From TrEMBL:
Biological process, per Gene Ontology: endoplasmic reticulum to Golgi vesicle-mediated transport
Protein name: Trafficking protein particle complex subunit
Key words of the record: Endoplasmic reticulum, ER-Golgi transport, Golgi apparatus, Transport
Classification lineage: Eukaryota, Metazoa, Chordata, Craniata, Vertebrata
Chief site of localization: endoplasmic reticulum
Cross-referenced Pfam families: Sybindin
PANTHER family the record matches: TRAFFICKING PROTEIN PARTICLE COMPLEX SUBUNIT, TRAFFICKING PROTEIN PARTICLE COMPLEX SUBUNIT 4
Gene name per UniProt: Trappc4
Protein family: Belongs to the TRAPP small subunits family. TRAPPC4 subfamily.
Length: 219
C-alpha cells in the first residue's frame, strides 16, 4: 500500500501545494536493433508508444531517455528530433527508456483547476441541497480522496486503492496546515505554502498512514 501524492487547492481553484510522495516504478529500458519493432507517435509535445506493447512497455508510455540521456519532450538531449533519430539506421543499436511521463508544474496547476471545477459541478448536480461535492474518485490503480474545509480549501490525496485511513489522514493534513501554515506569520492566505515545518510534519503523517492505516487516539 502507498500514498502517491498530496495536493492543496485554494478556494479559487489555484494549486498552492503539491507533494509527490511515492511513484510506482513503471520505467522499462531496452536495447533495440533496427528497425524498431514499436510504433511511435508524437502526442502532447512528447513521443509515445502507439502500438507494440511488450516486455513492460505499454501503449501510451513515453520515450524518457535515449542512450542514458534524458529526452526533452520530442527532442534528444542534444536537440535532435526523437523520431528522426530513431528512424536513422546509423544510430542503432540504441538503448531507449520508456515510462509514464512526469507531469510538469503547469500540468499540475491545470489539473488542480480542472478538479476544482468538477467539484463545483458535482455539488450542483446533487439532488440534495448542500452536497459536499466529490469526496472520492476511484480507478483500478489509485483512488483520489478529497476533503474541503468550511473556508473552501481542498486537500486531495492520491493513494493505492487498498490504502486505509485516508479520511483520518486528510483531517490530519488539515490540522498540520492549521498549525504550521496558518499560524506562520510569514504565510499569506490563498498563497503557495512554503514552510519547512509543514513539509516535515506532512511527510511524517504520510509515513505513519502508510505503516499504520487509520490514525489512533492522540495522533
Amino acid at each position: 500500500m502507498a500514498i502517491f501524492s498530496v495536493y492543496v487547492v485554494n478556494k479559487a481553484g489555484g494549486l498552492i501545494y503539491q507533494l509527490d510522495h511515492y511513484a510506482p516504478r513503471s520505467d522499462t529500458e531496452k536495447t533495440f536493433s533496427f528497425p524498431l519493432d514499436l510504433v511511435l507517435r508524437p502526442h502532447d509535445e512528447r513521443v509515445v508508444v502507439a502500438f507494440g506493447q511488450r516486455d513492460g512497455i505499454r501503449v501510451g508510455h513515453a520515450v524518457l531517455a535515449i542512450n542514458g540521456a534524458e529526452v526533452n519532450g520530442r527532442f534528444t538531449a542534444d536537440g535532435k528530433d526523437v523520431l528522426e533519430f530513431l528512424g536513422n539506421p546509423a544510430n542503432y543499436p540504441v538503448s531507449i527508456r520508456f515510462g509514464r511521463h512526469r507531469l510538469s508544474s503547469n500540468e499540475k496547476l491545470m489539473l488542480a483547476s480542472m478538479f476544482h471545477s468538477l467539484f463545483a459541478i458535482g455539488s450542483q448536480l446533487s439532488p440534495e441541497v448542500g452536497s459536499s461535492g466529490i469526496e472520492m474518485l476511484e480507478t483500478d490503480t489509485f483512488k483520489l480522496h478529497c476533503f474541503q474545509t468550511l473556508t473552501g480549501i481542498k486537500f486531495m490525496v492520491l493513494a493505492d486503492p487498498r490504502q486505509t485511513g485516508i479520511d483520518a489522514l486528510l483531517r490530519k493534513i488539515y490540522e498540520i496546515y492549521s498549525d504550521f501554515a496558518l499560524k506562520n506569520p510569514f504565510y499569506s492566505l490563498e498563497m503557495p505554502i512554503r514552510c519547512e515545518l509543514f513539509d516535515q510534519n506532512l511527510k511524517l503523517a504520510l509515513e505513519a498512514a502508510e505503516k499504520a492505516g487509520p490514525f489512533g487516539p492522540g495522533s
